[in-house]
Amino acid sequence: MGGFDATTVGIGAMIGAGAFVVFAPAAAAAGSLLPLAVVLAGLVAYCNASATAALAVRYPSSGGVYLYGRERLGPWPGFLAGWGFVTGKLASCAAMALTFGLYAAPGAEKAAAVAAVVALTTVNLFGITRTALATRVIVSLVLPVLAFVIVVGFTSPAATVDAVPAGAGGVLQASALLFFAFAGYARIATMGEEVREPRRNIPAAILGALGVTLVLYLLLALSLLHALGPEGLAGTTTPLRDVMDVGVPGEGSMGRGGAVVTLAAALASLGALLALIAGVGRTSLAMARGGDLPRVLARISVRHSVPWVADLATAVVVGALLLATDVLTVVGFSSFGVLLYYAIANISALTLRERPWYSPRWLNGVGAVGCLVLAFTLPAASVLTMVAVLAAGVAVRAVVLAARRRAA
């Protein structure tokens, strides 16, 4: 695929739960300072994007930060990056699937979510070209709808509720939750073997997708606060549909505007889920090739050149998460894993001798610190659960390596 398709895949991976799920809990944490939290999340994401782009140019192969960490820092940091990515993105897949179910089939959301995972895994098994095409179509339909919601929000009567006070901790936690919505550019970095002219197209695609998404999310946050107010936004699970009630009197969320928003939510979630399934499969492939995951996951389809065993395993794990959790829980899990992943990306970029203009060392340092700070401001349950999952992965790897040494 070329640069435009790669950019579209990145936008499709980012525009999902960030637009339709995360703004409500982020507003509960940050209150009227929600736009500041969006900007902070975007700044950390820019640090990460620049580091990831520099590393992707140096190592244009599938695997992302798992590969970069192994090459620049050693096997253990590489494993932590890969394990954090795989576990975090498995949670992201579940979040996107549940978002689809909540909008498309309220009352039967989990059944719809499982069906979406099965359908999109099947699409992905037919190869990256079809994945890119489907994502491009979805993004072209969703972006105009989000622009419509922004216009309706800004032209609605201003909410009269009092502002919700928030401290620095609330803003940081909101930024950590919102970061979940910015993490899609990792999908581009894991596609090094599929993108034409990766030295030119990968950096441009990462930065272009991030820029479009940051502007969109900031405008969306401002319009939601204008129409619903901090308290109203924090108290809803479907804020974009609620804007229709405020901004389109006599029709509201049950009319044509609400139907369009529901369709956009479903399509955005499907677009993100489609990109995520492919990214998890390719990182699992790289880890299996490196001996950090079972080698059966490295099997490639001869006809379509996709890691079909890894993709099927992804679908099974995501299905289990869908049945055991809710959307906000998996968002917290995902944010922690992905923030750890990017902390290692920034530390890896610090070691580069030759670096592009857009990735100076000081920016890599800011990105590493920012990721770690945001990760540990997430809700305690999310932090403790993900620390336990990561520790379990480290323990299993240590046992396997010890067994291999004894066998040798």
From TrEMBL:
Subcellular location: Cell membrane
Lineage top rank: taxon: Bacteria
Gene Ontology molecular functions: transmembrane transporter activity
Membrane topology of this protein: Multi-pass membrane protein
UniProt cross-references to Gene3D superfamilies, sorted A to Z: Amino acid/polyamine transporter I
Keyword Cell membrane appears in the UniProt entry: yes
Cellular component GO terms, alphabetical: plasma membrane
Keyword flag Transmembrane: yes
InterPro entries, per database record: AA/rel_permease1, APC_superfamily
Main localization of the protein described in the UniProt heading: membrane
Keywords: Cell membrane, Membrane, Transmembrane, Transmembrane helix
Transmembrane regions listed in the UniProt entry: 7-27, 33-57, 78-105, 111-128, 137-159, 171-190, 202-225, 259-285, 306-324, 330-350, 362-378, 384-403
Entry-linked PANTHER family: AMINO ACID TRANSPORTER-RELATED (PTHR42770), MEMBRANE PROTEIN (PTHR42770:SF7)
Stated name of the protein: Amino acid permease
Organism of origin: Arthrobacter agilis
